[in-house]
Amino acid sequence: LPSRVISFFSQYAPTRCASAPTSSEQGTLPPCHHHEAVHDPQLVPCPCPLFSCPWEGHLEVVVSHLRQTHRISILQGAEIVFLATDMHLPAPTDWIIMHSCLGHQFLLVLRKQEKYKGHPQFFATMMLIGTPTQADNFTYRLELNRNQRRLKWEATPRSVLECVDSIISDGDCLVLNTSLAQLFSDNGSLAIGIAITTSKVHSAEAEM
User: Fold this and answer.
1) 182 to 12, 119, 146, 189, 190: CA distances (angstroms)
2) Tens digit of pLDDT at every position of the chain (208 positions)
3) Strand spans (E) along the chain
4) Spatial CB neighbours of 60, under 8 Å, sequence gap ≥ 6
5) Three-state SS for 143?
6) pLDDT tens readout for residues 150-167
7) Of the candidates 20, 37, 66, the residue with the CA atom closest to the CA atom of residue 160
8) Could you tell me the end-to-end alpha-carbon distance of the chain, in angstroms, rounded to an integer?
9) Which fold does the domain 74-198 belong to in CATH?
10) Where is the Seven-in-absentia protein TRAF-like domain (predicted)?
11) Handedness of CA 20, 25, 31, 37 (dihedral sign)
């Protein structure tokens, strides 16, 4: 894993959307507001999960909205380590950061959610703040590495034009049950190595 470690605490604003409801306030996830009708096809709903933010805007101002309104931190570098703390918090809980590299911004969402009552799971996905066509140009890797155990997930990021709830429902992300998460956690913290590269297929096409 890369040596640079970024630590976030889930109870603070940089790791969760500001004013996001906790499980004590709301037992189930709100409906995904991405499915609501958007009158202007050029407008993007706020991609911040667990918070029904009414904001809509163009892709180029999504980053400034997330930073200013929801106070989500943005990290630089192709490879970083994201340290999510307080993994014991009740579901639903989100840990969120933005990752800037290769001239683009990505949104990492780590969610603790109960798909079945009494059985919380962890879901981690990377979304490009861009179009699905742009997202196809990249590959992201999430890696857990502890006590001589290593677990990798590699995939093409999805676009923020898609709903994170749908990505989790489809299972197109890194999924950990509680027991597996505990194997890789250290005192309630989970270190996730993040690496983003340009897709090999698209790189080869560009060279032709």
Assistant:
1) 22, 14, 10, 9, 8
2) 443 444 343 333 334 433 333 333 333 334 444 444 444 567 888 888 756 788 999 999 999 999 988 888 888 888 899 999 999 999 989 999 999 999 999 999 999 999 888 889 999 999 999 999 999 999 999 999 998 999 999 999 999 988 888 898 888 999 999 999 999 999 999 999 999 999 865 544 444 4
3) 5-8, 44-45, 56-57, 74-76, 79-84, 93-101, 104-116, 119-128, 138-146, 149-155, 158-159, 174-177, 185-186, 189-198
4) none
5) strand
6) 999 999 999 998 888 889
7) 66
8) 33
9) 2.60.210
10) 100-194
11) negative
Torsion of CA 103, 5, 136, 41, to 10 degrees: -70
Which segments of 1-115 does DSSP mark as H helices, in order? 62-69
Q: How many CB atoms lie within 10 A of CB 110?
A: 25
Contact (Cβ atoms closer than 8 angstroms) between residue 201 and residue 139: no
pTM above 0.90? no
Taking the C-alpha atoms of residue 15 and residue 88, their distance in angstroms, rounded to an integer, is 15
- Please list, in sequence order, all residues whose beta carbon lies within 8 angstroms of the beta carbon of residue 42, skipping any fewer than 6 positions away: 58
